[in-house]
Amino acid sequence: MTARGLNSPGADSRPPSFRLGFFTRMVDNVAPAQVYARAMEMFETAEDLGYDAGWVAQHHAHAEGGLPSPLVFLAAAAARTTRLKLVTGIITLPLESPVRLAEDAAVLDVLSGGRLELGFGTGGNPTSFSIFGRELEKRHDDYDRAFTIVRDALSGWELVPGGPILFPPAERLLATMWEATFRVEGAIRAAQRGSGLLLARTAVRPTSVGNEAIAAREHLGDAQSPIVDAYLANWSSADARPRIGLSRSVYVAPARAEAIADAEQGMRRHARAVGRRDGYTSDLTVEQLLARNDVHIGSPDDVIASLRADRLLSTASDLMVQVHPVDPSHEKTMRSLKLIATEVAPALGWRPSSQESMDAQISGTDR
After folding, report:
1. Handedness of CA 63, 126, 323, 262 (dihedral sign)
2. What are residue 298's DSSP bridge partners?
3. Of the candidates 108, 131, 194, 277, which lies 20 to 30 Å from 366 by C-alpha distance?
């Protein structure tokens, strides 16, 4: 099965569709209480707009803040929402105590009414691994070991031979698990385990500089297609369909000129932070920086066309949007969230989970 096959007419007679989710990184230069309050507002507003899922990323001891404890935040989000799926994208599994993680996830799943989904990854930040006394070079082996323990605990296996099983029971979570990878080998393992495949908002590709080089740069969907092809080719579960989650950088404004202007500060900041590591400098134009970082940006029509050009969209079960690395103001982030739900995603075949809530948002009615 190829990367285009999952939603093709031959594979399923239904029209292509996907769940719409959003990522909030919770990295901002404001007080922690305001960071988390803004993120909570995103969850509440996204639910009203009909989004299907809210995703959080885990950051340990990040220079600009972040979220070290995603399940704690999602417990609070569960109390403020009623329908939205609550997803970790990702928990750095090699740094976790797997049985404790399974227990926390099981409790949160009960409290949320069965809305939790678990996404895992190996991580790769040397500082985070040193904080927890773990060896970065062993992260893949540690990940596989921890994944097996979490899976077995959620499955209801004895936590020790002849001992008790997990309480509360959480077997439902097994069918919701996601695994993030940049590699074909990781996609094969995710398929063999029956996990959903999480694809990042960017991919490792040859360095490109200048207008001509960036214009000729391989599109993100094309770069990730071998990973998707390997995942689909190794999917063997007869009880479930493969799940492919696309994380994409998306920022929408009423007009492209405004969107580009809004991106200037964030893209320059991002280039200074990671450009040297990723093989480019901050002296590129804003348009070049946006292209270099695979950002879908502009008016609703611009972004619709840009996302339609992503060859993996027709394969995706989930599309997750995030404003990083544009990182505009909170107010403009919220505006983009609404424009995506009301204009962009519907043009791509998505329909809101709650049409009544969507109608209220479009008309300006409050919660």
Report:
1. positive
2. 252
3. 108
What torsion do the CA atoms of 75, 78, 84, 88 make, to the nearest 10 degrees? Answer: 0
SS3 call for 279 = coil
In the numeric block, which tokens belong to residue 100?
A: 């404790």
335 three-class SS: helix
The CA distance from 49 to 366, in Å, is 11
The confidence score (pLDDT) of residue 215 equals: 55
Distances (CA, A) of 94 to 12, 146, 150, 179: 37, 7, 11, 13
* pLDDT tens for each residue of 120-146: 999 999 999 999 999 999 999 999 999
CA 181 to chain centre: 12
Amino acid at position 90, single letter: I
Over the stretch 307-348, which tens digit does the pLDDT of each residue have?
Answer: 999 999 999 999 999 999 999 999 999 999 999 999 999 999
Question: Is the backbone peptide bond immediately before 340 cis, with ω within 30 degrees of 0?
Answer: no
pLDDT above 90 as % of the chain: 80
Q: How far is 87 from 178, CA to CA, in rounded Å?
A: 9
Estimate to the nearest angstrom the gap between the alpha carbon of 331 and the chain centroid. Answer: 21
CA-atom Rg of the chain in angstroms: 20
Sequence letter at residue 85:
K
User: The tokens of 119 are what?
Assistant: 């996404």
Q: What are phi and psi of 54, to 5 degrees?
A: -115, 130
| E strands present in 3-78 | 19-24, 53-56
- What SS3 state is found at 244? strand
The span from the CA of 361 to the CA of 342, in Å, is 9
Residue with tokens 């394969």, as numbered in its chain: 315
Tell me the pairing of strands 53-56 and 85-88. parallel
319 forms beta bridges with 20, 246
Tell whether the torsion through CA atoms of 276, 278, 284 and 286 is positive or negative: negative
What residue has token string 């404004």? 253
| AA letter at 183 | R
**H/E segment holding residue 119:** strand 119-121
Cα–Cα distance between 347 and 259 in angstroms, integer?
A: 20
